[in-house]
Amino acid sequence: MMMKYLMLFGSVTMTVVASTLLKIGGRSINFEGSMAGILLGYMSSPVIIAGFATYAAAAVLWVYCLSQFDLSYVSFVSSVQYVLLVIVSICVFQEHISLMKWIGCAFIMVGVVFWLKG
């Protein structure tokens, strides 16, 4: 029973890690020039490849979670990734998060709690 919850948490966490890797990798890509050049930059970046691979692994876990839980449940739990991404934005990328965004995160978390308890 606990394993399926760990898989759900793993899927959400891996999605956050994948987004982080893609942002880091995207910083090294030159977006000037041809589409072929941009695609070659994607395919030659180990960080971007790792990001896509992490997304793929998260998708496999996501399918497992969809088979174990109600769609509405996993969809709401996955919204926790928005809050995790804000934390990564601050800690990894030193981004400024406005008060309104923090309030939005709070609403998301309150909504998740209400949904899970309801």
Q: How do the helices and strands line up, and which of them pair or pack?
A:
Blueprint: H1 2-26, H2 35-43, H3 46-68, H4 71-78, H5 80-91, H6 99-117
Describe the structure.
The protein has one domain. The relative contact order is 0.14. The protein starts with a helix and ends with a helix. Helix 1 packs antiparallel against helix 3 (46-68), helix 1 (2-26) crosses helix 5 and helix 5 packs antiparallel against helix 6 (99-117). The chain contains six helices and no strands. The chain has helices at residues 2-26, 35-43, 46-68, 71-78, 80-91, 99-117. The protein is 81% helix and 0% strand. The chain is mostly helical and 118 residues long.
